[in-house]
Every structure is written in structure tokens, then in C-alpha cells.
Amino acid sequence: MLEQRTSPNQKSCASTSMTKGRDELTFGDIGRISEVKANPFAHRIFELFSEDGSGNLSFDKFLNMMDAFSDDTPSEVKLVWAFAMWDFDGDGIIGSGDIKHGVDLMTHSGPLVQPSIHMLQRVPSNAGLDAEELDLIVKHVFQEVDPDCEGLSYFDFRRILTRMPDFLHNFHISI
User: Fold this and answer.
1) 25 neighbors 57 (Cβ within 8 angstroms)
2) Where's the EF-hand domain (predicted)?
């Protein structure tokens, strides 16, 4: 096994080249990787794993993120992170606003103005869905998964995703 040796005060070459001498990784450092770049939730994932919601990751937080998206991660851990990813407002319930925001990200209805912990400001774009189409999709999604329109708790979300066998296979990042 090849081992990289550095003194306690010296950063490894890989770490230094990626962070350009900083103590944390930014989305810009990793966002150029095709699998990350293609993920509509990439900014959201970085926000969730960062200490302060900024999206900047210490090396330990980066390893935590990669571990959560590893093929070997237990399904329960993946479900917890998937729920957090969809709970944009952080209230412990996935409501219609959260679903709308997720669908908006997936359909590229507008570029991000400024990534933030809630990522709610967007610039209108002709590339995605218009507001009426987006509302119609959210309505149909909620009719399917939450007919009472009370929002999805973690346990409701878990019950739904366990019926989707491809979810666990697709919930990964490999770089």
C-alpha cells in the first residue's frame, strides 16, 4: 500500500492543490467534477455538510459527506441525509414549498442568485418550467405522496423511499 508521508505541520500535496493553501474546500474546488456539477442538489449538499451552512467544508466534513454518499453507507444514514436535503426550510417537515424548490432545482427553472442555507432566491429563466407548470407538478406530487397535505415527516419520507429500490443505488457520489 502506498502511503503519503507528511510532517504534522505540512499539508499533503493533494490537499494543497485542491484547496490552494486554504483550510477548507469550497464548492468551486469540487464543483468542477462532472458528477458534482451535474447534480442539481450539489450546492444544497455542501450547505448541509458545512459547519455553518456556507457550503465551505473542512477536510473532516468533506470526508463525512463522501462517507454519507458512499455505496457502503447504511441505508438509514442515506435516508436521514436525503430527508435533510429535501427539507429546505429546516422545519422537520417536507412541505409543498420544499417540494417546489426541489423540483425547481431539478428542472433548472432559474439559476441561483446566491446560494444560501435555504437557496430560495432564483432568477427567472426560460430554460425550465413556468410558475404554473411548477405548481401543477407540486400539486400532483403531493396528491401521490401526501393526500392530506400535512407535509412529510421523516418517517413518511422513509416509508416512501423504501418502496423505491433504485434510491439507495443512486444516492452516491464518487470522485
Assistant:
1) yes
2) 37-72, 74-109
User: How far is it, in rounded angstroms, from Cα 85 to Cα 156?
Assistant: 15
pLDDT tens for 118-155 read: 444 444 444 567 888 888 988 898 888 887 878 999 99
Are the C-beta atoms of 175 and 14 separated by less than 8 Å?
no
Distances (CA, A) of 5 to 10, 11, 22: 9, 10, 20
Whole-prediction pTM:
0.75
| DSSP codes, the chain | -------TTS--HHHHHHHTT-SEE-HHHHTTSHHHHT-TTHHHHHHHHSSSSSS-EEHHHHHHHHHHTSTTS-HHHHHHHHHHHH-TT-SSSB-HHHHHHHHHHHHT-S-BSS--SS---B---SSS--HHHHHHHHHHHHHHH-TT-S-B-HHHHHHHHTT-HHHHHHS----
